[in-house]
Automatic annotation (TrEMBL):
The keyword Methyltransferase applies. Coiled coil: none annotated. It holds the Pfam family UPF0020. Residues 47-158 form the THUMP domain. Its EC number is 2.1.1.173. Keywords: Methyltransferase, RNA-binding, Transferase. InterPro entries: RlmKL-like_Mtase (IPR000241), RlmKL-like_Mtase_CS (IPR053943), RlmL_1st (IPR054170), SAM-dependent_MTases_sf (IPR029063), THUMP_dom (IPR004114). This is Ribosomal RNA large subunit methyltransferase L. The gene is rlmL. One of its GO terms (molecular function) is rRNA (guanine-N7-)-methyltransferase activity.
């Protein structure tokens, strides 16, 4: 593997590709190219370590190591058997395979995974008279198999556990928002740690913690114990330590306030446990408060939140969203607010026209991430017409 110029594919969620591309450029990626749910780029081994440790909107970081065409499963197996797997793993290491198959020739991803496993095991058995173990739960080496029609790509997964598993979430609510999605929403919303931040329906606190991490320039994976690349044959421990030190030295003090409200004491308790796990008690404040009875206390203020969906909690949605709109208008003048919702009819009851709409997915739910600008005075009648 040429570690000076790696071709890297970084997976993300739909709608976050431009945000991820900007992150990758800032971290030093070359030839950055936006794809669907992914960003491709080039960089060296140190850059690969850096993006795993620091990129907030990356879900998984892959390094393609083998590409070929196969028209049937025999050809597929033969090609894989001829590959030098011992360049990438030792015979005494365990491995696992993730597969994605979009092909009329190969319809079962599980079957293709088994054929690839057989080829790897047979390669080692023939060459070393020994075989590596398959460990789907906690492998030393993780491979990614991607088949698009007859084109096969085998990649090394440099991350291991998906990168939204930051390591601070100890408690969660009914349908907590994914950490990568939360960070992406904050970056779309323009949160850069200047001013103050409010999540008025904070649940178990994910958006608050991601907001604090951005504000302090904390590396996204500062709490993670292990990356898959640490088991690679070419792993450079000294280089990874230097990269971590460099990123940690960039952490800064945050001058503003990050506040969360919720009416559910159980959720607030979960949020406090997670905030403590993220060592953010000095930075984030949570309060038992009904947003609909609140008024603006922080100036300037950005608000980003994830109201309860119909999938999660039974409430009267038309009435609920009307109350959001009323609270925006009466309690939060001169405020920029963003919310995410899958109920595209109910959000119309907010009674304000969103100034931006971004299509995102929360799990399998298609949602809109909506921006509302509340003005006071002359712009009010012009901008706040109901849609």
């Amino acid at each position: 593997m040429n570690t000076d110029n790696l071709h890297i594919q970084i997976k993300t969620f739909y709608g976050l590709e431009p945000i991820l591309a900007e992150e990758i450029k800032k971290l030093g990626g070359k030839n950055v190219e936006i794809k669907t749910r992914a960003v491709n780029c080039e960089g060296d081994l140190g850059f690969l370590y850096k993006i795993n440790y620091s990129a907030r909107t990356a879900v998984k970081i892959l390094v393609p190591i083998y590409e070929f065409k196969a028209f049937n499963e025999h050809k597929f197996y033969d090609k894989l058997l001829k590959f030098n797997w011992d360049e990438f793993m030792y015979v005494n290491q365990s491995f696992a395979i993730d597969a994605t198959v979009h092909s009329e020739r190969f319809t079962h991803s599980q079957f293709m995974t088994l054929k690839m496993k057989d080829a790897i095991v047979d390669f080692f058995r023939t060459k070393y008279k020994q075989r590596p173990n398959v460990d789907p739960k906690n492998p030393d080496i993780k491979f990614n198999l991607h088949i698009d029609r007859d084109f096969v790509t085998v990649s090394l997964d440099s991350s291991g556990e998906p990168l939204f598993k930051r390591g601070y979430r100890k408690e969660q609510g009914e349908a907590p928002i994914n950490e990568v999605l939360a960070s992406g929403m904050l970056q779309i919303g323009g949160w850069d740690g200047k001013g103050n931040f409010l999540d008025p329906m904070c649940g178990s606190g994910t958006i608050l913690i991601e907001a604090a991490m951005i504000a302090m320039d904390l590396p996204a994976q500062i709490f993670r114990k292990k990356f898959a690349f640490q088991n690679w044959k070419n792993y450079d421990e000294e280089l990874f330590q230097k990269i971590k030190e460099f990123r940690i030295n960039r952490i800064k003090e945050f001058e503003g306030k990050i506040v969360g409200y919720d009416i559910d004491a159980r959720m607030l308790n979960a949020a406090r446990i997670n905030i403590q796990a993220a060592e953010m008690e000095d930075v984030i404040e949570v309060q038992k408060k009904n947003f609909f009875e609140s008024t603006k206390e922080l100036f300037p203020l950005l608000m980003v939140f994830n109201p309860p969906y119909d999938e999660r909690i039974s409430i009267k949605f038309d009435e609920f969203y009307k109350k959001i709109g009323d609270t925006f208008k009466t309690g939060y003048p001169n405020t920029l607010a963003w919310l995410i919702s899958s109920d595209l009819q109910a959000v119309k009851k907010i009674g304000l026209r969103p100034s931006r709409k971004v299509k995102l997915y929360n799990g399998k739910l298609e949602t809109r991430f909506l921006q509302y600008e509340m003005y006071e005075g002359s712009k009010k009648s012009k901008n706040n017409e109901p849609s």
